[in-house]
Amino acid sequence: MDSAIHRDLRQTERRESHLWFMALALLILFGTVIIGHYAVVFLGEVDSQPALTQATTYRALGGLFFLVALFCLYVLRIVLFNRRMKSLLVDMNSAAASSMELDDFLPSIAKKIAETSAVTTCQIALLASGTTALKISAAHATTGVGWQPQVGKTYGLKELTVWGRVAEDLQPIVLRRQDIEQLPPLDRELLTGGLTDARSILVMPMVTKNGIVGIIVLANAKGLGKKRFNASCLAMVATLAKHVAGAIDQSQLRKGAIRDPLTNLYNRRHFADRMKEEMARADREKHLMVVLLCDLDRFKLVNDTYGHQVGDAVLKATAESIQDSTRGTDLVFRWGGDEIAVVLPKSSRQGALIVAKRIRQAVLNTAKQNQLDIDVSIGLAFYPEHGRNEDQLIKVADRALYIAKRHGGRMQVGEEEYRLDGGSFNLVFQPVVDVGSDQVLGYEALARDPQGKLSALELFEKYRAIGRLSELKQILFTAEIRAAREFGLERIFVNADFDVLSQLQPDPVPPAMDVVVELSEQEAMHDVERLLAVARTWRDQGYKFAIDDFGAGFISLPFLAMLGPDYVKVDRSALLQAASSEQFKDFLRSLVQAVRTYATAGIIAEGVERREELKVVEEIGISLAQGYLLGKPQELKEATSAVFSREPWSAHMDS
Q1: pLDDT, average across residues 460-489
Q2: 377 FRET partner, CA 20 to 30 A, in 52, 453, 518, 628?
């Protein structure tokens, strides 16, 4: 199509050049005549011959000047017409070469055609989906015309007689006033667009190699300067119709490549291209761009209950409602399955939240109309705040979506409450005490919510919900060891799991310091050989191990024997059971004695909060303990002392 437009542009320019050449030739001729006249006068005076009479000369020159002026006006008219023609061809070439939608460039084309053809109104009607209807896609009228075209209205092809003639012959039809009056009502409504005083109408088919794609309808009203459609006008409109049809054909081909066939939204492949454009525009214009990732909740249940045909219909209706909830400049993509991505150029934080709420309300309304229990969760990411490229923005939006779904808030902006750095947690340390000597053996490092709103379990659950628990544990592990070294602690107990240990490279343990890695007994149930290999790697760098939560789950005794933990920490639940049952106390005493064979450094009782529990600890032969009775978890304030402000546990005993 580009080559055809360029060819017509060159032909237009050649015709214009020829006209200017002819005008120049006439001007030269006019100058030659004037020069010749004065030469004749001069020679007549020299030879004393009678020259042409002055009146005759002026009449000849006046007539010649009139002809030259008339021709120059004609040339000027043709040049102005050619410029409008070239402008229209250039616009169509740009539309064909760009990613513009039909709805974006057709109104401009209709306006240019009306101006170039000097007609009262211009309408462009295209075949709608399924080729069973004709849709008014664009319209334009000259200023001052009382005309309100119904852009977007469709007409059934079987109800239009004029369409049948044009589609069959693929030739233009010119209708005079008497023909217009005899048209069926629907044909008259379509062709006049409500223009009551139409004098003549031209219906020009737009044809591509695949057949007819629509029509251009030009109408002239009664009035001064409105001529009938002659042969030159028909030729000009036919040329324009050919190129408009080509632009439409190219646009529809592009649409098939970048649109999702079910929802008619942009597809995921087109997302990367448009994101590059919008990010570049945001950088140039220094404005905020927002990406919304929307996921339909409980949509799978619709497919499972009513079938995929109903599911497709619901998804299509939902996509239309989301599209209608956005601005014309916003971009809506089908991301995959029941996920839809929305890009908001030139937005703001508040504006993005308003759009998100509007989208959710539209989805709820669609669900209500179809009597379905569907909702939507939305994750938002801001450019450039949350990322400088497509992958970073989608990653943040996806995590925000995950948070919105898991926490039930439906909308989440980025990960503002889920950042992971040194400010994501507070480190506290709880003493492990030798109850016989009341001396601190070491400290267990624990994480707490820096704002004090969440319990330790809730803090970990917060990051587990967004798939970043392992990342949090890795950061905690290194931070706890670093803090212990800075405070000069001789022995530190740090919680970890084999997933964390396998992803970190062990640094050698600092001199004069014990680092005891606490592993939950519940981990040692599967893939024992791999876990032991990981443990050996860390042992080789000087780390020690403790089995945590002993007695709360199911321990693999062979794993316990092969690991050879330095410490075993008995869970509080076992202590409580021993406090309430003499039989279980005897069993636990025997078990502790057996485990002592492997836990060479000692056995520690966890969660000791009452005197009765401490008494049970002593009765079953455990000398090391930790818990609120012996010292609460606290922050270490000074690197020089690393001493807790705690009372000796004996102060809590009856005198």
Answers
A1: 86
A2: 453
DSSP state of 580: H
In the chain, the amino acid numbered 519 is: L
CATH number of the domain at 268-413, please? 3.30.70.270
Q: Is the distance from CB of 110 to CB of 217 less than 8 angstroms?
A: no
Distance CA 579, CA 584 (A): 8
CA 168 from centroid of its chain's CA atoms: 45
Q: How far apart are CA 114 and CA 121, in angstroms?
A: 6
Strand partners, 220: 200
Pairing, β 544-550 against β 514-520 = parallel
- CA distances (Å), origin 273, targets 47, 267, 395: 84, 11, 18
Q: Which CATH class is domain 422-652?
A: alpha beta
Name the residue with tokens 């004709």: 134
Q: Which two tokens stand for residue 390?
A: 């497509």
Q: Which residues pair with 624 in a beta bridge?
A: 434, 604
Residue 380, SS3 per DSSP: strand
d(CA 251, CA 248): 5
**Dist CA 126 CA 129 (whole Å):** 9
Is the pLDDT assigned to residue 103 strictly greater than 90?
no
The CA angle 70-74-79, to the nearest 5 degrees, is: 145
Parse the chain into domains and list their residue ranges: 1-97, 100-258, 268-413, 422-652
* 360-364, 413-417, 616-620: range with lowest mean pLDDT: 413-417
Helix (H, G, I), strand (E, B) or coil at 292: strand
pLDDT, tens digit (0-9, with 9 covering 90-100), for 229-247: 777 778 778 888 887 887 7
Instruction: Residue 558: name the closest of 608, 524, 512, 609 by CA.
Output: 524
Q: How does strand 331-336 pair with strand 375-383?
A: unpaired
Share of the chain above pLDDT 70, in %: 76
Q: Which CATH class is domain 100-258?
A: alpha beta
From the candidates 249, 295, 330, 338, give the one annotated as an active-site residue: 338
Q: Where are the alpha helices (DSSP H) in 370-468?
A: 390-407, 456-464
pLDDT bracket for residue 639 (50, 70, 90)? very low
Output the six-digit token pair for 444.
Answer: 């267990």
275: Cα within 13 Å, side-chain hemisphere: 23
Can you tell me which residue has the tokens 């009678």? 50
Q: Please, which residues bridge with residue 506 across strands? A: none
Q: Is 338 a catalytic residue?
A: yes
Residue 538 has pLDDT above 70, yes or no: yes
